[in-house]
Amino acid sequence: MLETLFPNGIAQYAIGGAFVGLGVVIIYVGTGIIAGASTFLESTWSYVSDLDRFQRRKYVASRDWRVVFTLGIVLGAAAYTYVTGDFSYSTRVEPWRLVVGGFLVGVGTRLGKGCTSGHGVCGVGSLSQTSLVNVATFLLVAIGTAQLVFAMGVRP
Amino acid sequence: MSSEPTDRGLAFNLIVLVGGLVFGVGLAVSEMAKPEVVLSFLQFEDFGLVFVMFGGSIVAGASFWLLSRTGKAAPLTGREYARRLKSFDRNVLAGGVVFGVGWGLSGICPGAAYASVGIGNLTILWAIGAMFVGAYAQALWRQWSASDAESAATTAD
After folding, report:
1. I want to staple B56 with a disulfide (CB 3.0 to 4.6 A). Which of A15, A20, B7, B91 is the partner?
2. Domain span at residue A101?
3. Is A140 part of any domain?
4. Which residue of B has its CA nearest to A57?
5. Which residues of A touch B36 (CB under 8 A)?
6. A16-70 confidence digits (pLDDT tens)
7. How many Cβ atoms sit within 10 Å of the Cβ of residue B49?
């Protein structure tokens, strides 16, 4: 039963999840800020775009540290991969899926006030009803979408 | 919050960097940085990803719960410890649906996409570029629809 549900075991998932949570905790303890990953998309636009929405104070005031946070994520993942020694991975998911899906993720996360880390980890951890509703919505829709695309024969 | 300076100094940036590093290690260890792994979860082939999101939220949530009860403020900002609570409106649902279609189609979300660059997956830059375009598109659209509503209101007067 367990092997059917978790063919690759659960250790790396549980340990990885704990590290994700710990990264949030470190920033929270030091600064009181609950960091999500997707605000970076809008706050970074504020460097180059005059759109009023991007020039709001909350984006301009946080854009520098959000760049630092994102760099940290890239470097942390790189450090772990350096230790394992395997940089050969490159996704085989079709580029059109990455582009269309990425676009919708960019729209949806900003419209819905957060993503898998902001709502999924931090909002759920806060037992925020807004986040619980958002996460339940995107999980169900994502499962339906992935199953539909799979059923249509797209691999991967 | 409005009293917080934009330029926050070395200690602040260091702690954000360290937090980001640990966060990135987590996304690499859990393999969430690989869209194939996310898709295998969404296709019910491997349910392990449940442990990533809920493991992360339990660890983070415990610190929110503990520190927000102390009534104290964070040393580097003076910001009071609180939970992450956002107001609910229709956009939270609409955004969740759009995000869900995108996540289900690509297997990638923002944090995992950044980490994916770190594990050497440069192909993911397609997705990151598209996320920026998506964030720009929604800002443009919302600004237009807001000014439409404004001019409609002015005409009505």
Report:
1. A20
2. 92-156
3. yes
4. B2
5. 91-93, 156
6. 999 999 999 999 999 999 999 999 999 999 999 999 999 999 999 999 999 999 9
7. 20
- Report the domain count for chain A: 1
Dist. CA A55–CA B139, nearest whole Å: 11
Mean pLDDT of all residues in B74-96 = 96
Total residues belonging to chain B: 157
Write down the mean pLDDT value for chain A: 96
Render pLDDT for A40-52 as a digit per residue (tens, 0 to 9): 999 999 999 999 9
A75 found inside a domain: no
Tell me whether A68 touches chain B (CB under 8 Å). Answer: yes
**B134 close contact with A: CB closer than 8 A:** yes
Q: What is the ipTM of this complex?
A: 0.97
Considering the domain boundaries, does residue A29 fall inside one? Answer: no
Option in B26, B77, B131 nearest A19 (CB): B26
What per-residue confidence (pLDDT) applies to B98? Answer: 98
> Is position A137 within any domain?
yes
Contact yes or no for B21/A23 (Cβ under 8 A): yes
CB-CB under 8 Å, A35 with B56: no
The pTM of the full predicted model, rounded to 2 decimals, is 0.95
